[in-house]
Amino acid sequence: MSFELPLDQIFRGDCIEMMQMLPSGSVDCVFADPPYNLQLRGELRRPDESVVDGVDDAWDKFADFATYDTFTRAWLGEARRLMHKDATIWVIGSYHNVFRLGAIMQDLGFWILNDIVWRKSNPMPNFRGRRFTNAHETLIWAARGPESKYRFNYQAMKALNDDLQMRSDWYLPLCTGNERLRNTHGLKLHPTQKPESLLHRVLIASTHVEDIVLDPFCGTGTTTAMAKRLGRRYIGIERHPDYVEAALGRTQREVRLPPDQLAITPARREAPRVPFGSFVERGELPAGTTLWDRSRRVKAVVTPDGSLVSGQQRGSIHKMGALLTGAASCNGWTFWHMERDGALVPIDVLRTTETALRSAG
Amino acid sequence: MSFELPLDQIFRGDCIEMMQMLPSGSVDCVFADPPYNLQLRGELRRPDESVVDGVDDAWDKFADFATYDTFTRAWLGEARRLMHKDATIWVIGSYHNVFRLGAIMQDLGFWILNDIVWRKSNPMPNFRGRRFTNAHETLIWAARGPESKYRFNYQAMKALNDDLQMRSDWYLPLCTGNERLRNTHGLKLHPTQKPESLLHRVLIASTHVEDIVLDPFCGTGTTTAMAKRLGRRYIGIERHPDYVEAALGRTQREVRLPPDQLAITPARREAPRVPFGSFVERGELPAGTTLWDRSRRVKAVVTPDGSLVSGQQRGSIHKMGALLTGAASCNGWTFWHMERDGALVPIDVLRTTETALRSAG
DNA sequence: GTTGCGTGTGAATCACGAA
DNA sequence: TTTCGTGATTCACACGCAA
């Protein structure tokens, strides 16, 4: 049996069983924080459903890895089925499990886009002085397959980083203080609650408003709460009733940001396409006008159909830019300039004016 | 057949076959930079139309993941046989291959101690704006097994990091400039030459003077050269004759530091923003350099872990400044000077560069 | 000598929609 | 499924030459 896709809900149950009931190709993004260690939470079972007990001689270590791998293949396989062709997935782990996660993801056909390092500003020190301070965790960001046309909000990430490309190493604090959920005894409710800043960056980078986000290991609901705040739709799955209760209350209390605060720096490739010829038609750049490159080394003349002519050659603004410079390709909008008050101005200013008019009207 | 262990040599040949001829349990540390199995699909151009010189060498091409895994299991298995019970291994990779490396290492019985992130100060940007800038690579540090009594020079690492525990994220520049080996046409000799600062930290962290270090993918000899400089014994294996020739010459020219400059030591120091040790690692203020006070009344010598030595005394730049002047305390950054073009310049100038400032964040 | 500008380059899985 | 046209896209350094 299979449900219609339920939105903005958090379910209690085994994530593999729950995912099996959801329809294929229905989610835009998955965020998963799977158990890091078999012995910790008793969530792991062998394929025959017997529970793994924690013995640590060499033979059993191998059995543990095999069991962990089986479990990992099962939930990643279901998650992949639920993802539509262009969806992406984030999986977080530490050196205990992340290598198995990554290898299995590759085996299942996921196409890794980046591995992201979450550098903790306040990690726990190494008390025994026998290793380097374990100051980071790793996120694997992957598309469903190599041909996916996945979403990456490049300009938004650049804006988040002082107008420099966002790198693969992120420096963020642990979840502490008021953000950390606690029980009535003041003890932390969940051992590995993720910081909201981490989910903020993940969701802003790889999803759009109204996109559907699935978290199969929902825990205390950082993903669902942040999805709601940022105007994304969410589906959470969590096995432990206490965590489900906390996640439900927390997400319920969360308030969706108003639309004007949800807008991110738009991607230029998604701006409405305006034909160069339309400016010729309207007389804003009449046929006969001469265009130049930035340093006046090459020039061309605008024709009535919006193509350019230079000598015997004729073509679009892009084709002519490439042709005259010998480049493989060329963005004609930024290459060609027109004279305005004696100075050269890129013809792209025509387009930005147009865009402004459209959004205003 | 099997050789006695040959020391301080670089061999040309297939690393699996060569390792098979060496005796079991004979090396203290392995550093391995295996092929990454990048899967580049076409030409990549910068926004200025220049072409990126990608890694297209035959040695990096594998038919599929299964082929790569078979190769990886084979060389890691031989490396493990050569390691004695308490030896450790370093393996470096990127998201293309590191998950497979780590999972296979765990399957073979290695015990992962840390995953280390080499954060590059100057990575190549993402030119098409379709992903996060791939700004790091990952090193896996592992013992031969869970019971290994491995070497970790905790105090030396702490000293190198201005008396703060060394973290799992390391900020180091790429190998560029004079350090990068070039052929007679000025082209890079090896597409992926590793920086000396990386090997410096690896060797200081996990080996002792006279320890035997094996590099099965020796390339142009960064490992062997740094092992010689730091007084370690080395065995290099490399398949490509051009790389072997370069590694031999480079390692030949390298000079072993004198004994008093090789000693590493515990130190208790303050923590300014930029660790003094980072300049030592990067070779901007190499071990062996003599520092003076402003009026050349006292002097001291820089050691590989970033502490100073003068006579029988050893300590941080701050402690040694205080000690040698009889003061209660001292700001080593302004007290100590280095010679530059015959004049004395405070070492604090090292910190004023953009690079230095960034290493803190 | 110093400063500043132009150029080159690094382990890279680097477009996408319409017809 | 394939072809084709449009047009989006770079950061930190090192080095050489000019002012």
From TrEMBL, chains A, B:
This protein's UniProt keywords: DNA replication, DNA-binding, Methyltransferase, S-adenosyl-L-methionine, Transferase
Enzyme Commission (EC) number: 2.1.1.-
GO biological process: DNA replication; methylation
DNA methylase N-4/N-6 domain segment(s): 27-247
Record-level Gene Ontology MF annotations: DNA binding; N-methyltransferase activity; site-specific DNA-methyltransferase (adenine-specific) activity
GO CC terms in record: cytoplasm
Catalyzed reactions per annotation: a 2'-deoxyadenosine in DNA + S-adenosyl-L-methionine = an N(6)-methyl-2'-deoxyadenosine in DNA + S-adenosyl-L-homocysteine + H(+)
Residues covered by the RAMA domain: 265-352
Keyword Ribonucleoprotein: no
UniProt-listed Pfam families: N6_N4_Mtase (PF01555), RAMA (PF18755)
InterPro entries: DNA_methylase_N4/N6 (IPR002941), DNA_methylase_N6_adenine_CS (IPR002052), RAMA (IPR040843), RM_Methyltransferase (IPR001091), SAM-dependent_MTases_sf (IPR029063)
Enzyme class at the top of the EC tree: transferase
Family: Belongs to the N(4)/N(6)-methyltransferase family.
Protein name (Swiss-Prot/TrEMBL): Methyltransferase
